[in-house]
Amino acid sequence: MNFIRVIFIIVCILIISRLEGQIAVIAHQDVASDTISSAQLRDIYTGDISFWPDGKPIVVCDLNDEMGIHDRFYDFIAISSSRAKSIWMKRMLSGQSDPPLIFQTGENLAQRIAEIPGAIGFIDEQEITGTVKVLLRINIRKE
């Protein structure tokens, strides 16, 4: 009977682990910060913060909706992606800043962040490479 319970618990753990994941907020290796808060991310992704603490410009990278990561990230920073797009459009039309660079896959985004000084973005944790710095991991529930 105990053997059946152990097997049941293992199966449950495996099922639950497949329903949960993490989004990794990544940056170029040379970025001076080692961590970041959700409030700072919101300010970066709405253009309110455009420089790192050391004065280097931030290059914002966004992920096209790959496996729902895009929407879950924007939920985490407490702003809708449509609202963020509206803010960026206003900033772009007024000449204040360029909009985020958009990538179709996490792999492409991670590769470009590794190449662009000051870049920041978010990907599925499984796509992390050794060529980027992880600033934050966001726990998510997959649907």
Written account of the structure:
- This protein is α/β, with parallel strands linked by helices and 143 residues long.
- It has one domain (22-141): D-Maltodextrin-Binding Protein, domain 2 (3-Layer(aba) Sandwich), CATH 3.40.190.
- 40% of the residues lie in helices and 23% in strands.
- The chain has five helices and five strands.
- A five-stranded mixed β-sheet has the order 3-2-4-1-5.
- The longest helix has 18 residues, at 2-19.
- Residues 11-19 have low confidence and may be disordered.
CATH superfamily: Periplasmic binding protein-like II
- What's the helix count? 5
Stated plainly, the CATH topology is called D-Maltodextrin-Binding Protein, domain 2
Content of β-strand: 15-25%
Helix content: 25-40%
Cα gyration radius (Å) = 18 Å
CATH architecture: 3-Layer(aba) Sandwich
Number of strands: 5
Regions with little confidence, pLDDT below 50 for 5+ residues: 11-19
Strands side by side in the biggest sheet? 3-2-4-1-5
- When the domains are counted, the total is 1
Structural class: alpha/beta
Q: Please identify the top-level CATH class.
A: Alpha Beta
* Largest sheet: number of strands, sense, barrel closure: 5 strands, mixed
Outline:
Helix content is 40%, strand content 23%. With 143 residues, it is α/β, with parallel strands linked by helices.
Show the helix and strand layout:
Elements: H1 2-19, E1 20-28, H2 38-45, E2 59-63, H3 69-76, H4 81-93, E3 101-103, H5 106-115, E4 119-124, E5 132-141
Parallel strand pairs: 2-3, 2-4
Antiparallel strand pairs: 1-4, 1-5
